[in-house]
Design goal:
Order of helices and strands: EHEHEHEHHEEEEHEHEEHHHEHHHHHHHH
Strand order of the largest sheet: 1-2-3
CATH architecture of the domain at 361-443: Orthogonal Bundle
CATH topology of the domain at 361-443: Arc Repressor Mutant, subunit A
Helix content: 40-55%
Largest sheet: 3 strands, parallel
Shape: elongated
């Protein structure tokens, strides 16, 4: 098989969410694991809703996830290509004008349903004569343009769903050009896929019915029909479909909340598949598990709590050299020993800021006043520096011998005094970082 060409075609009308990221990642990993091409193509023909700032935000979100497109296209720059395609379909008798208003179509649908008939467009416009068309034009009506379907069984082998068959006789002839002359995605995507050499279309299962229609359009335009794969959609745990309205699940909001890009990538790709949802260090490691054949036919349920577990696991395996530039940006890079001490207690990288503050001090202690004599005794037993990992053990052993305390009664007051917290990283690692002077001050 030749190297695939795929595309991710978002509408820049809002921020993309984890469901959109699923489609983008599946396309990217499918192409890159096979030496192929990934096209980012903005579906921005809706001039009222599309915004440049949303295009920029989508590019930023994809870059954060590690997706670098090989080619970027804007449908708004390709309008002459769509007009030429529409003219070709008109000349072939496949695109015909229809003058019904939305209200007229709705009334017709209701009548059909009342009679127990499917609400499929009856092609009344095909019977219009020149005089009738002229009369509509005198009224000031402008036509929308419908694609005349063949009304046949369209079959394809879906990369996720297997053998698929849709009888286009059960579908309404789709509108490809609106009354105002603007184009619907059904046409523009096919024109672009043909001219950009797209070989594989990986998208959500909500486009399955569109596929039969688009295969007929591909064939009518004389283009090669790509392979199709329709993955399941991601829904919330309550079953609500994700949308751009759910800002908390946007890629931008997840990034701002401190999640790692590979956390989001793993959840987006592996949710709703037979693959285990686990952390991977990079996209190259994730790619072999982005298997379309492993994608379930059932709706994928997204549990936000899984983000925390995967994110923590990723951080716990992150080396100091990889973390250092980001820690430095947070003013929390206190060196490899600090990172080794705190990383297993981090849920998000930003949590390191609080532990850096604990090491640097000052802190607000929260000890019981009754522990003051015990802490004074501990201060008197502080060994001289230099301190290392064994210092905590030898020091607490000396305190135990002197005070008779053991277990929680020994260790908990010391942790509270030195860190201001009930729990956290191992004290044997933190103590050398805090140092003798800070330790002495906090025990007094």
């Amino acid at each position: 098989m030749s190297a695939p060409v795929v595309r991710f075609a978002p509408s820049p009308t809002g921020r993309i969410h984890i469901g959109n990221a699923r489609t983008a990642l599946l396309n990217y990993l499918f192409a890159k694991s096979r030496g192929g091409t990934f096209i980012l193509r903005y579906d921005d023909t809706d001039t009222e809703r599309s915004r440049p700032e949303f295009s920029a935000a989508i590019a930023e979100d994809l870059a954060w996830l590690g997706l670098v497109p090989d080619r970027v296209e804007h449908q708004s720059a390709r309008l002459p290509r769509y007009e030429a395609a529409a003219d070709a379909l008109r000349a072939a008798g496949r695109l015909y004008p229809a003058f019904e208003t939305a209200d007229e179509l709705e009334r017709r649908r209701r009548r059909q349903m009342a009679r127990g008939l499917p609400p499929v467009y009856d092609r009344a416009a095909l019977a219009l004569g020149p005089d009738e068309i002229a009369a509509f034009e005198v009224e000031g009506r402008r036509p929308h343009w419908r694609f005349r379907l063949d009304g046949r069984r369209v079959e394809w082998l879906d990369g996720v769903r297997g053998a698929q068959t849709i009888d286009t006789a059960s579908l309404s002839d789709p509108v490809l050009v609106r009354e105002d002359g603007t184009f619907l995605y059904t046409l523009t995507s096919v024109v672009d896929d043909v001219e950009m050499g797209v070989t594989d279309i990986v998208r959500g299962e909500d486009h399955v019915t569109n596929t039969a229609v688009q295969i007929e359009i591909f064939e009518a335009l004389g283009g090669a029909v790509p392979r199709f794969a329709h993955h399941n959609l991601i829904a919330s745990t309550t079953g609500e479909a994700l949308s751009k309205r759910l800002g908390s699940l946007s890629i931008g909001s997840l990034r701002e909340a401190g999640y790692e890009p590979m956390t989001v990538a793993a959840i987006a790709v592996l949710t709703g598949s037979s693959e285990e949802i686990r952390a991977y260090p990079d996209l190259a490691a994730l790619a072999p598990h982005a298997d379309l054949a492993a994608v379930s036919r059932s709706t994928a349920r997204f549990d936000p709590h899984e983000l925390d577990a995967i994110n923590a696991h990723l951080l716990h395996g992150l080396s100091h050299s990889d973390a250092a530039p980001r820690l430095a940006a947070l003013d929390a890079d206190l060196g490899p020993a600090f990172w080794e001490a705190v990383r297993d207690n981090l849920g998000r990288l930003g949590d390191a800021v609080a532990w850096a503050a604990v090491v640097r001090g000052p802190i607000e202690a929260a000890n019981d006043p009754e522990d003051r004599p015990f802490l004074a005794a501990a201060a008197a037993l502080l060994p001289p520096e230099p301190w290392e990992d064994t210092t905590w053990g030898s020091w607490t052993a000396a305190i135990k011998a002197a005070t008779g305390r053991k277990g929680r009664a020994l260790f908990h007051p010391l942790r509270l005094a030195l860190t201001g917290r009930d729990e956290g990283p191992e004290m044997k690692r933190l103590l050398p970082l805090i140092g003798r002077r800070n330790t002495s001050d906090r025990l007094s």
